Amino acid sequence: MERRNVFSIASPSFEGDLPAALFHLGLLMDDISTCKASARVIAIFHTNAGHVTLNDERYNRERNRANGNPYKQLVANLMARGVEVELCGATAKAHSWANADILPGIRINTDAMARTTELVQQGFPKMSEFQSQVGRDRLLGCTRKRPRLCISCYSCRILGRYSAPDPSHQAL
């Protein structure tokens, strides 16, 4: 069974210096790999997070910087691990961004709301950066009421080793 999830990323909420959504996408991809699960994960950047998808030149102009897009390698690594990255077309239009301004491999969709609605109707649970942990649980099949589990528990659930997560596993 292929697991599906769509991340709606409207702002780069931070955990330390790292945007939480990128961090949580990385954790999710770690879990999927550990569990040897089949998954399709789509990240849609829009509103205040759209700049994460820009190439160095455009990022510098938009953000009044000189060092390029600090997130480009994180985004490229996620894409290399199978995350499909999209930019909201309405956000791109509002900023006059074109395909030439976007990092390679990122698609510009019509708009985030329409695309997210389409994916939800296709069976993709929607997750925002504030729902990341619960979304990881849902994507990987966890049915526990508690929102936080350890990575090993995800593996246990997917691999069917335990009927409930192992209480000896340390929480995240």
Describe the structure.
There is one protein chain. By secondary structure, the protein is α/β, with parallel strands linked by helices. The chain has one domain (2-132): DsrEFH-like (Hypothetical Protein Ychn, Chain: A). The chain has seven helices and seven strands. A five-stranded parallel beta sheet has the order 6-5-4-1-7, sandwiched between helices. α4 (89-95) links the parallel β5 and β6. The longest helix is centred in the N-terminal third of the chain and has 16 residues, at 20-35. The protein is globular and about 45 Å long. Residues 131-135 and 143-172 have low confidence and may be disordered.
Provide a brief overview of the structure.
It is built from seven helices and seven strands.
